[in-house]
Specification:
The protein folds into three domains: 7-92, Rossmann fold (3-Layer(aba) Sandwich); 96-140, no CATH class; 155-169 and 217-224 and 240-444, Ribonuclease Inhibitor (Leucine-rich repeat, LRR (right-handed beta-alpha superhelix), Alpha-Beta Horseshoe). The longest helix has 21 residues, at 85-105. Helix 2 links the parallel strand 3 (43-46) and strand 4 (63-65). The protein is built from 18 helices and 15 strands. By secondary structure, it is α/β, with parallel strands linked by helices.
């Protein structure tokens, strides 16, 4: 058997040999030693307790050399490759689960596929669970990860261009979330990259089970909802349980500026790339010092047009050098608020700006189009912003929008007033589609006009 230029993986323990001696002997015969079994692996040398590497090689049809064959090979005897009887007991219990996982993990990544993977792990033989998790962990590393910034948070924003793959696919399913909150800790949690609580209300006691888990070191995205006090948030900020966490959403939590300021100075605050404060109660101002490395900030539903010092808020946001995505939707903002919130120093750095569900109207659109730095935007969300045909024409005629790749318009969630005065009609959409200043990708975001129905031919008399 010639091993020259062959890729070989060594797994398990060998009677009479140490693993590093086996690897050295194989290298001396021209083999390249690898650590993981992949499609490029030519041979697996499997001893006792070879684990998921043996099952993976069997599933992928990779040649296997067992301990007895290895000894014969090192003695210069002829050997025939393939799984031997002494390896069968390691393969059979896991083979069905791994065959199913192999079919799933190497398909086109999607949220539906991820749910099937989680179900396959839950429904597998208890003896095969550890191997199945190890197998899935290696294969899922090739899946898309958490984006540096979070996309515009309305349904249309996930359908076109870069937003299509911007959602974290490996979010913990609801059944696993309930197990985690109940105090259970399982290695399967390590497969998840996002922990996004939806309808579950999380209190301080339940949330501490998150920090007590030993299997969330790969978690990148955490969304919390419920009744959480400042003590827990600061405990999380200093905790070593979530070393990979970079995306934090504190939706509908009762927050005070001083709590947010103290969180920003923790180890977690230094790592954060995205911070979500959707409808955070009692938050009447942002601290002067936010997490310094933020790429994305979600300030939706904070009623910024009420008691906030918008001038100070604009200055605070301008001090974030890496900020590229800013969501200001559902804040009651009008034309007067925009110059204070979006100074040139901030707007010139932004790539994504969300202003949906604000009663901007024509005066707000004119003010927005006059702001310096607008020409640097890549994505602009103006859904549900009380727009009419005059607003659409103003957008269509403005040459400063020529770099936009995504322009979101239309009424999706609410009607500010009568449809006659606050809806874009066919003439407004036509002006946008004919605009020489909008890119084809921006025009592709516009609603598709209804197709006229062909007239029915009259039937026989």
């Amino acid at each position: 058997m010639d091993l020259k230029n062959k890729t070989v993986v060594v797994a398990g323990r060998f009677l009479g040999y140490k693993v590093h001696d086996v690897r050295a002997a194989l290298r001396a015969r021209g083999a390249h030693i690898a650590q993981a079994v992949t499609s490029r692996t030519d041979l697996l040398v499997a001893g006792r307790n070879a684990g998921s590497k043996l099952a993976m090689a069997h599933t992928m049809g990779i040649a296997v050399l067992d301990g007895a064959q290895l000894q014969a090979f090192l003695e210069g005897k002829a050997v025939s490759l393939g799984p031997r009887s002494e390896l069968e007991h390691q393969i059979n219990p896991t083979n069905d689960v791994l065959m199913q996982l192999r079919r799933l993990v190497y398909s086109q990544p999607s949220t539906g596929l991820w749910e099937e993977i989680c179900q396959a792990i839950d429904h597998g033989n208890p003896h095969s669970t550890a191997m199945a998790i190890d197998y899935a962990q290696q294969a899922l590393d090739a899946w898309p990860g958490t984006p540096a910034t979070c996309p515009i948070p309305h349904p249309n924003a996930f359908n076109i261009g870069p937003h299509q793959a911007s959602r974290e696919l490996r979010a913990m399913p609801a059944t696993w979330r309930r197990q985690l909150l109940s105090g259970q800790d399982h290695p399967k949690f390590g497969l998840c990259k996002a922990l996004l609580f939806g309808n579950e209300r999380v209190n301080n006691t339940l949330a501490r089970n998150i920090l007590g888990s030993a299997h969330l070191s790969s978690l990148r995205w955490l969304r919390l909802k419920g009744r959480l006090g400042p003590r827990f948030l600061l405990e999380m900020g200093h905790s070593q349980a979530l070393p990979a966490l970079t995306h934090l959403e504190l939706n509908r939590l009762t927050l005070e500026p001083k709590t947010l300021a103290r969180l920003s100075t923790t180890a977690l605050g230094e790592r954060l790339k995205h911070l979500g404060l959707y409808q955070a109660g009692q938050l009447h101002a942002l601290p002067r010092h936010l997490p310094p490395n933020l790429h994305s900030l979600d300030l939706r539903g904070l009623h910024l047009g009420a008691d906030w010092d918008l001038q100070q808020l604009g200055q605070t946001l301008s001090q974030l050098p890496s900020l590229r995505t800013l969501h200001l939707g559902d804040n009651g903002l009008t034309a007067d608020a925009l110059p204070m919130l979006l100074p040139k120093a901030l707007l010139a750095r932004l790539k994504v700006l969300g202003l949906s569900s604000n009663p901007l109207g024509l005066s707000g659109i004119k003010m927005l189009l006059s702001l310096p730095g607008l020409e640097h935007l890549d994505t602009l969300d103006l859904c549900d912003s009380a727009l009419n045909d005059r607003c659409a024409i103003a957008l269509a005629k403005n040459a400063r929008l020529k770099h936009l790749r995504h322009l979101w318009l239309g009424n999706i969630r609410r009607n500010w007033d009568s449809p006659k005065t606050h809806h874009i009609t066919a003439s407004g959409w036509d002006a946008l589609r004919r605009s020489p200043h909008l890119t084809p990708s921006a025009q592709a975001c516009l609603p598709t006009p209804p197709q006229p129905q062909p007239a029915l031919a009259p039937g026989p008399a």
